[in-house]
Amino acid sequence: MIVRAARTAEGLRIGATPSSAAHSALLETAGALLIWDVADPDVPAASVWDPALAIDVAWQVYGPEAVPALLGQTDAFEPSPAPALDHARRAALVAWAAAWWPASTLAGVPPLDPRILSVERADALLAVEHLLDGEELLLAALADGLVAGRALRLAPGIHAAVRPALTALEGRLEEAAADRGITAGSAAATVPARADLALAASATVRSTAGVLAEGTRPLDLSAFAPGTVDAAGSAHWQVRSGQSDVVLEVSAPRAPSSSPTDPGPLDAVFAGIALTLRPEPGRFAGSISVPVTILLTPPDARTLTLASPGYRGHGDVDAEALLAIAHARLDRARETVIDDSGLPSRAVLLAEQEAARR
């Protein structure tokens, strides 16, 4: 495999970056941003802003053959086995999973336990500490990992097959945190049981009584905070006859979640009318009284947009492709033997292995 390097106004670009941010697993290192394509997380691309500072990163991730490219002596090289590649990839994949994992009741994609992700992230960053730009990222990850690890010790619902690996990860974090004087409090979270997922699925069933007009619109996943809406779902609107007025109702399915805390509300705008969707079991929903003339709105003006507060959709996330990636990763996780050291296959996360067996 030959990797190309090209000079740009910002520095040096190595390899080809994924076409979508939703497919990009990122790790910021000293002098360079490493970018893996989660659909094929083999060798990363990189955006290098300080080639001199990033020489050690390149050697550790691509092998010594990459160094001449950073020195401007060649525009192509063939990567070789490198000492930090697996750990760097794991840190990037955990960050991607926390931001983009498409949990879906409708598509059968279980949520990943955020506590396991926190423990994995801290352990992976610890292994590549020498490549990071400063220690702030690692120290914050260790503090979060300690909280998550201690919560996991007594947490019900964690598959027994991953317990030894989690114990190994937690042990390394405890030792590293103690060496740095880091302490943590406590936290708790629960993984939804199958009965909870069934309840969420039933919440997508809607009544047709009194419906005067209705429609659906695909969800733009880039418009929502991570883990907010069901990645396979659609937003639905209805204009219904009320007791004494006409009511606009809008709903969207919630993503299955490992947290007992309800997510925040969503902002919705239908045909210029704004309303708020509140979290309910299995869905977000909101309603507002509207003039009967809303029924005269032309079909092409019956637009519906939804977003988490502070988010703006970019329309660049292919939910179907993201779900396909998640299914493929879960299939790989089911086939991977769980290593008691807490270091699974180079391309599989322990959180994925736990979710696949749940």
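Next protein, fold it too.
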Amino acid sequence: MQNLTRWLNRLDRAIAKKEFKFAESFRQILIPGPNQVKTEGLLRIEPASHIYIPGSTYQHLHVMGWLDAGGNSFELPDDIGAALTLVTDRRVEVIPAQPLTMEGEPNRKVFLSMSDLPDRRLMGPLDEGFDLDGEFRDLLGGIRSLDDRKSEVINAAMRLHYGACLLFAADLAAAYTLIVAGIETLAGEFHDFSPSWEVWDQARSWEKFIKAQALSDKQAEALRSKLLEKNAHMRLGERFSEYATRGITDAFFEQELSVWVPDIDWARGSVTGGSWHPGPRIGDVNSNVDELKKALKKSYAARSGFVHSGERAVDSINQAVGAYAGYKASAPVPFAILRSLLRHLILREIDSRCTSRETPPIEDRKAQNVATLLQEAAPFLSNTKKKSR
């Protein structure tokens, strides 16, 4: 919540100096229930329209605005949503959409979704001619042919991948952690790992200590073993990165991170359609296995920081450009690439271990229903013919 504190401090300083040059930022928010909310103060909230999202409760869409004096408008929305949810004891969702205004019409705003920016391929349309039934059959048939334990692990990794895909627009750090957990789940079952002293990043420092203390070979070995035992997180992080990069081929690095760009209908004030645009290859971001492995260790550290202390080394701002521009090799693997890696590993485990792709022979539901009706009706039709004779 430090962003909120800094925001209040900026307002106090500006008011004290009588610098009333504030900029107002806007976001859409969803408040549950049919009631309209209207408030004016630190936040300006105006009702917009009722909205019903399938599978959710009835909600009311509002537009929220706040004044600031020189801050970054991208830093506050999630923290404001967290604060509103806490004080209202209701789920108040800040929509990840950036308001755009048309030149000459500053009061007319179109809210352009930013939820897909960390993984712009994930929210694009299916390719023309994609054989959905065929691919679905291959996946399920392959999973069914595995033994129960391996099937359970694959399913768990798939559910973690699915959860991340549902969550990434609302809380990217949490979604990122689910992707890391998915790879961890696979590594725990499919990767035999015996960590060595040399792979630990603190080994060199401890070797200097051993030498300075003139420990005997027996004492030094005992200390190394104890340190490895106590630093289980090192083993988990190393296992994670080693499994994720094991057997990775050039084909993975050649994958293109294509970009779906929406079209804006300014006359209607809405987003309509869109088009695919070429993006970078994964190899343009993480150029080889060694570089990917180093970045994966950063990913595991980001996961640990989030789980144990709520640190957000991964957020929507850095990930919005992470896989597409301005990426730093010292940073965690961008969400789009990490998710692609988990998907690749799930499919690889199925492909390498399945013994069959067979599924029930249901080709056309309508045809199947007609055939079933005819079969069930056969005795009655037979009796009718006999009576007519």
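About the second fold: Residues 365-388 form the longest helix (24 residues).
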